[in-house]
Amino acid sequence: MAYTVRGFGAMHYGRCDFRPDGSYVTTLWFVVFYLPVIPLRSLRMRKTGRVKYYGIRPRSEVEVLERTKPHGKQVLRTYAFFAAGLAIFLTAALEHVYWLAAPGAILVALPWLLRNRALDRVKASVERKKMGFTAELPD
Q: What sign has the CA pseudo-torsion 111, 117, 122, 123?
């Protein structure tokens, strides 16, 4: 279970390898100040549709389908994302030119855009199978 106290603890970062059943792979990280330091393990998860309330924030329940060693590509992508974000922030702060941080807004949106694209591909594949076509589109 991912749990942090004032930025220290464990958190899930990343979603990849989506399947038609709605499951995905995420990696559990040891974090310091919410920055991923050490990947602990990867988990295949699926949302159950139920919601629990912890204080005032609702959270969707998930079920763990599989536990594996850390997913290599996801670990590299997570390190790259945080390194790029940190580089943009430090450059802007050290140079006192805060407009340099504008690319950071695009960088923050990139994982969301890529995740939605991957989900759309899985949905299209399922629809093609239902219609009797091959799952993959020709290149």
A: positive
